[in-house]
Design a protein that fits this description.
There is one protein chain. By secondary structure, the protein is of the alpha/beta class. The protein has two domains: 115 residues, Rossmann fold; 94 residues, Arc Repressor Mutant, subunit A (Orthogonal Bundle). The chain is 41% helix and 22% strand. The protein has eight helices and twelve strands. The strands form three sheets. Strands 2-1-3-4-5 form a five-stranded parallel β-sheet, sandwiched between helices. It has a four-stranded antiparallel β-sheet with strand order 6-7-8-9, covered by helices on one side. Strands 10-12-11 form a three-stranded antiparallel β-sheet. Helix 6 packs across helix 7 and helix 6 packs across helix 8.
């Protein structure tokens, strides 16, 4: 499981990275909000931990920007302020949980397990269809020994398609499961992710294709052999 940890306090950031790494998590650190936003948009993470008070861009702004582009990765906010209004602001902006400093390492690890519904050493499944395999742990699609890295949303879409092999995954199901029940994500956003997945499948040499049923949804197909 991969975590992005953003906190401008260098000693605390290094201490938390050490704690999380010792617990079995893969951790990447960011020293300010702008760095955190860039890392979150360019890499795939299973969890993001954001300090609220950071230079260049505060944690709440990073949170809002990530939610605005449809990123629904679990986000845990850290703050030195225990005021209830601050916590409500974070939760209203899309945070999954809130942790007030100072906190015990055990509590941090428990919160992580609660909002990700995983343990650090959990073994993830490798669903397959045709000549492709989904490596959920590394967020990769694998075919013929070649790999393609997936974003967090692409991974979720592939998991849905693989869970409904032989059947149709509706546009509504994709929107609901990937972007959230109350999301107003446009169909074009789903199409862009599907288009990127098709390109990545092609880059691995996979024969499996993502077929569209106009206006209804998508399904995985293997071309018929002649």
């Amino acid at each position: 499981m991969k975590i992005l940890l953003a906190d401008d306090e260098r000693e605390l950031r290094q201490a938390l990275i050490a704690i999380l790494s010792h617990a079995g998590y893969e951790v990447e650190g960011a020293a300010d909000g702008e760095e955190a936003l860039y890392d979150a948009k360019t890499s795939s993470f299973d969890l993001i931990i954001l300090d609220i008070m950071m230079p260049k861009m505060d944690g709440l702004t990073v949170l809002r920007k990530l939610r605005q582009v449809g990123m629904d990765v679990p986000i845990l906010m850290l703050t030195a302020r225990a005021d209830i209004d601050d916590r409500v602001a974070g939760l209203d902006a899309g945070a999954n949980d809130y942790l007030v400093k100072p906190f015990a390492a055990k509590e941090l690890l428990a919160r992580i397990r609660a909002i990700t519904h995983t343990s650090p050493g959990a073994v993830k499944a490798h669903p397959t269809f045709g000549d492709i395999e989904l490596d959920e742990g590394n967020s990769e699609i694998v075919s013929h020994g070649r790999k393609a890295q997936l974003t967090a949303n692409e991974l979720k879409i592939m998991k849905l398609l693989l869970a409904h092999t032989g059947g149709l995954t509706s546009m509504e199901a994709i929107r609901r499961e990937v972007w959230g029940l109350l999301s107003d994500t446009e169909p074009s956003v789903i199409w862009v992710n599907i288009s990127n997945l098709r390109k990545k499948l092609k880059s691995t040499g996979a024969e499996v294709q993502i077929a569209a049923v106009r206006g209804l949804g998508y399904r995985l197909e293997m071309p018929e052999t002649k």
